[in-house]
Amino acid sequence: MDQILAQIPVFVYVLIAVVVLALLGFVLLRGPKAPPGGYDSTRDADDPAPGAAGDGSGEHARAGGGTATETKAPSLDTPESAGSRMARLRGRLAKSNNVFGRGLLALLSRDHIDQDVWDEIEETLLMADLGTDASMELVENLQVRVKAEGTQDPNHVKAMLREELLKLVDPSMDRSLAVTRKGDTPAVMLVVGVNGVGKTTTVGKLARVLVAEDKDVMLGAADTFRAAAADQLQTWGNRVGVPTVRSEVEGADPASVAFDAVKTGIDSEVDVVMIDTAGRLQNKAGLMDQLGKIKRVVEKAAEVDEVLLVIDATTGQNGMTQARVFSEAVNVTGIALTKLDGTAKGGIVVAIQRELGAPVKLIGLGEGADDLAPFDAEQFVDALLE
Ligand SMILES: Nc1nc2c(ncn2[C@@H]2O[C@H](COP(=O)(O)OP(=O)(O)OP(=O)(O)O)[C@@H](O)[C@H]2O)c(=O)[nH]1
């Protein structure tokens, strides 16, 4: 072997070394290889570069004591399309609430329905927070129908139960939200409810839905008890490019911030102004005073078209008490029932509508940005019986 190596001329070694060094240099200078077709861009071609002039970041427009900040994030969130959102949320509603419907179907499908079974049916209804009156009414109606029509055919039993539940949920109620401009003024919505029920989250989610429908939206942070509450609302607004009017002063007068929001909304010719209020109220008199004052002051600029009461579906009887107190303080025009994903007690829809005489207009089905759905009586009952 040594002899063979000795016979190779030195210039061959030099040649090999030169070739190896040339290859190494080529690879290092060229850098890493791009994948075929290049890299995906997360920015659309017409999106402004982050931080570029005109990207919407930064503050502008002062209004009275409040400040409207249109801090559009460099790349805005695109809300989920209505179709896919509804399909996903229907599945979630059925998942958390069909325990109740299936239980009823199983009881009604028994060969022989005696008084014990009727008692069990009533108990199931009460457990789902339907309320005493509605539960008794449903049992009475079903008793009459079972006697007349029998329970032999499971499909017929299901259809019968669907019809009776639907009557209670009342598909004839007007569940549309006042979110359309009237002449020269935007629609004005006050969002009320005790703390922690999901007011700010609901305002944020609703802003996304409205933006997806091409509406111009303005948010008003009238929860001035905590600076963090205004920050939270503004974060929701920033994500979809909606301005928020807020006060930089903690504890500022909520009515004044609400007025500024509506005034700024009028000047900017938006379609709808949504005002998030505080729920941290010590007593009923304080609540009446504060909400009454906000409404009165706002109405110096524009009529309040919608008072949306937010109720946490998991709080049962507590939610009912809140509904009563708020309806005495303001004229509630619609209900947003949140956290329906966390409870099988969907019957509260019926109880609360009966208590207030106002329709459930929105339901919250999760913490995600697109987890808000318009309430639809038929879809709701179908989800219970799925
Ligand atoms: N699972 C679930 N959680 C929700 C829903 N809606 C709101 N939440 C959560 O409830 C919590 C309270 O929501 P907020 O929007 O801060 O409630 P708020 O009423 O504005 O509370 P305050 O600002 O304290 O008055 C948050 O963690 C939300 O993510 C819902 O539909 N489902």
Describe this structure in words.
- 49% of the residues lie in helices and 12% in strands.
- The protein is α/β, with parallel strands linked by helices and 386 residues long.
- The protein has a ten-stranded mixed β-sheet, sandwiched between helices.
- The longest helix has 27 residues, at 82-108.
- It is globular, with a radius of gyration of 30 Å.
- Mean pLDDT is 81; it is low at 24-65.
- Guanosine-5'-triphosphate is lined by residues 193, 195-201, 223, 229, 279, 338-339, 341-342, 364-367, 371.
Briefly summarize what is shown.
This protein is an alpha/beta fold. It contains 13 helices and 10 strands. Strands 1-2-5-4-6-3-7-8-9-10 form a 10-stranded mixed β-sheet, with helices on both faces.
Q: Provide the spatial order of strands within the biggest beta sheet.
A: 1-2-5-4-6-3-7-8-9-10
Q: Which molecules other than protein and nucleic acid are bound?
A: guanosine-5'-triphosphate
How many H/I helices? Answer: 13
Quaternary structure annotation? single chain
Overall outline? globular
User: Major beta sheet, specifics?
Assistant: 10 strands, mixed
Class of secondary structure makeup? alpha/beta
Cα distance, first to last residue? 83 Å
The overall pLDDT average reads 81
What fraction of residues sit in β-strands?
Answer: 5-15%
Summarize the helix and strand pattern as letters: HHEEHHHHEHEHEHEHEHEHEEH
Report helical residue fraction.
40-55%
* Low-pLDDT segments: 24-65
Radius of gyration: 30 Å
Number of strands: 10
